[in-house]
Amino acid sequence: MTSTIRPLSFAVVFAASLFAQPRQADILVYGCTSGAITAAIQARRMDKTVIMVCPEKHLGGLTAGGLGWTDSGNKAVIGGLSREFYHRVYL
Hints:
Elements: H1 2-19, E1 27-30, H2 34-45, E2 50-53, H3 61-65, H4 80-90
Parallel strand pairs: 1-2
């Protein structure tokens, strides 16, 4: 059954790409880890347009998977957007 699903999935994606409109952005972020998300957020804060491509099924990497503030050991090393994220989650 999986042998028929793969060609069908490819055909659907290929057919959809034929009708897709080209897009432009200042920055393309390829990946879906927390670092990729942070890069996209920072780029938007710098008034850049961003296209994010996530080839995986899950967005957020280890942070979304449960690795948190307390897992880092030394909280003093967490700063910038990561610190902002953890503060917002904590509240």
